[in-house]
Amino acid sequence: MTKALVIAGLVMWPLAAMAEETALDKTMRKDPDRFAGQVTDLIAGFGGPEGLTLAGIEEHIALERAGARAATLRRFFAMDLDADGTVDRAELQTSQRAANANARGRLERQFRAADADGNGRADAAELAEQGRIAGLRGLGEDEAGFLRALMTLDSDGNGALTGAEVAQAVAGLEKAG
Ligand SMILES: [Ca+2]
Ligand SMILES: [Ca+2]
Question: Which of 4, 22, 134, 141 has its CA 20 to 30 A from that of 68?
Answer without folding.
Answer: 22
